[in-house]
Amino acid sequence: MSSTTRFRRLASAACLVLGPALLVAGFAVMPWRRSDATELDSLNLTAANITATQIADLLVFAGALLLIPALLAFMRALGRGAPVLGLVGGVLSIAGAVAGMLVVVSDQMMIALADQPALRPDAAAALAESPAWVLGIVLVVFLGGSFIGTIVLGAAVLRSRILPAWTGVALIAAPAISIASHIVERQAIDVVSGLLQLVVFALLAQRVLATDDALWEAGGLARPASPRRAAVGATS
To answer: What is the structure's pLDDT at 229?
Structure first.
């Protein structure tokens, strides 16, 4: 089997871990913005946490970038057991990742405005009355793609059985946990949602590493050893 196949398999496994891990780190560092915050509140919060916002934006951008090949690998792994659900969930999640990178650009614009104290009130008023409706579409794609895509991927995992059933349930529950974090205004709960997704992606990465190159090239994935087979191997 060619070395390119091995490289693609190993790179896929790396992206499956690094993408979600960087996103979790970014969301943990990002200053928390309350749901009822005004534009001026957001600018003041950003101004008080410019370094943290810069680091968080960089982590989120890098995580979203690596999440795209990770999702392609996820779709490949689901190709035999749940191809339609895998395709729909993967495409929605990729759309959410791309929109997330665009949101980072918007965040950087907020930093530029927040860094000028005298301009903040006028900038906040301009943002509140801005006719820029495309950003609203980007936010809908980001939230809808990320939340709905993750739920569909969880359903695909349950259908395909490429991972234990609880991982599919975890993916389905993750968006609800994230929404709950914004209802109760607790950033730690949102981080838990990201950690759940990271664990699932890391388990899939482990399975990808256990797959030989020929099987990966054919679109297959190594099956986990059954408890009975594992017990026999341990006693032999």
So the answer is: 47
